[in-house]
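Anyone opening a protein record will find just a pair of labelled lines. With that in mind, the following record should read easily:
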Amino acid sequence: MDRRNFTKFALSGLAFSFLSDSMGRAAPPTLPQPATPAPVPRVPAAPAKPLPRYAALLDRARAALDQHGRAFTLRDRVGIVDFDAPSKDLRMHIVDLVSGQANSYLVSHGRGSDPGHSGWLHSFSNEFNSLASCQGAFRTEMEYVGQHGRSMRLAGLDPQNNNAEARAIVVHGADYVTEDHVAAWGKCGRSEGCFAVAPHIVPQVLGLLGQGRLLYSGKLAAA
């Protein structure tokens, strides 16, 4: 083999070697990348439910349930009378202690608790002939039909209301505790210390209270 053919053969072999090496080192196939998940939109937190205005008084009522536990045969519902509110407001609340739901009503206070008839309770009294409202824990007693129709007796369980039964402090209906009266006068009329409600809601109120439950009246501010 002469020099020219030898050189041609050598170059041909070198090219084949380079081609084989390049093919052997071919880039690996590109694998598909997983898709980036779309961001999940942030759901705003539900706003906290505001506490009812009577929440602190309800805490007192719960404490009274524990204090006078044996006095009550039924502990599923309680009545709250919030005398911090004016008489034009729905300030009697019958609260289901399981669900937290409440039914609210107009209710009077005694004329001795508001001599100037301002619509606000200014003071309590447990004294006979005071014509004033008294505060504390009451046990609902039997219904009866009297001067004001269907009514419910109450037994006072605390030193500040233990004359309630003898004073005939009861729950009864009265025309001066209606929405029409409040619309005309801007306030309810006054009782002689009883928890008077509108006549048309007496069956509902007495039905929800029933006998053997707690009715708690009070005022967080000094009275």
Observations:
- Helices lie at 3-24, 55-67, 179-185, 202-209.
- The radius of gyration is 41 Å.
